Structures are given as structure tokens and as C-alpha cells.
Amino acid sequence: MRSLITQEQRAQLLANGAEFNRNEDFDPLPVVKLFTPDAGAIWLLASLDPDFPDLGLALADLGVGCPEMGSVSLSEIEAAHGALGLSVERDLHFVATRPLSAYARDASRARRIVTD
Fold first, then answer.
1. Fewer C-beta within 10 Å: the chain N or C terminus?
2. Cα–Cα dist 31/113, whole Å
3. Per-residue pLDDT reduced to its tens digit, 44-53
4. 95 Cβ contact partners less than 8 Å away, ≥ 6 residues apart
5. What are the b/e assignments for 74-102, b being 16+ CB within 10 Å?
6. Which of 1-5, 10-14, 51-55, 93-97 has the lowest mean pLDDT?
7. Is the pLDDT reported for residue 1 higher than 70?
8. Three-state SS string across the chain, please?
9. pLDDT beyond 80 at 2
């Protein structure tokens, strides 16, 4: 199976997951933005669980106007396809500018994930 994240991103996601396990108030910057080019789904992935590295914490919007924060399966995201059969992609230009909670707050107001 292809991987949507680089080894460097995986290392940062796992480090964020370890910090989150130590400090439940930890509010990391998202590390990677994944999206479906043909379905409007977006995931801002902030951490991976060191004990279960397929499980992560993300702000997700499946393109229906209801963004929410929660657990995601990286392998399920990697296997997903949009309406036209296109695979999920990584936004190569995404650079987080604020913590995940700020993206979640803005997404709640806008009813979609706003990254610019």
C-alpha cells in the first residue's frame, strides 16, 4: 500500500502522539493535510498513537459541511477514493500556522476546514 506521509512526517506525528499521551492539554500543529481531489474531503492529521501507529488524531471534513475532530485510521484514508475514483493526496504546500484547536474552531464557524 502506498504511503501518503513521509518518514519525517510520520516521526513528527508519532512524537506528537507521545506528547499527547503525556499531556492531554497538548494542542499540536497539524503535520499534514490530506484531501480527495474529487470529493471535497480533507483531513488535517496532527498525531499518530505510538502504540497503534495506524490510529491518529485529525480534524476531518468528509465534504458534507460537518467538520469534526476525532480518531482516524491512516490506512483507511490511504485506501479511500473520491467520487471519480481518484486517490487521496497529500497537500505538498500545506504549512500549519496555528494549533489544531484553532483550525477546529474556524472549521466549526465556516462549516468546512479553512487552511488559508
1. C
2. 15
3. 999 999 999 9
4. none
5. beebbebebeeeeebebeeebebeeebee
6. 1-5
7. no
8. CCCCCCHHHHHHHHHHHHHHHHCCCCCCCCCEEEECCCCCCEEEEEEECCCCCCEEEEEEECCCCCCEEEEEEHHHHHHCECCCCCECEECCCCCCCCCHHHHHHHHHHHCCCCCC
9. no
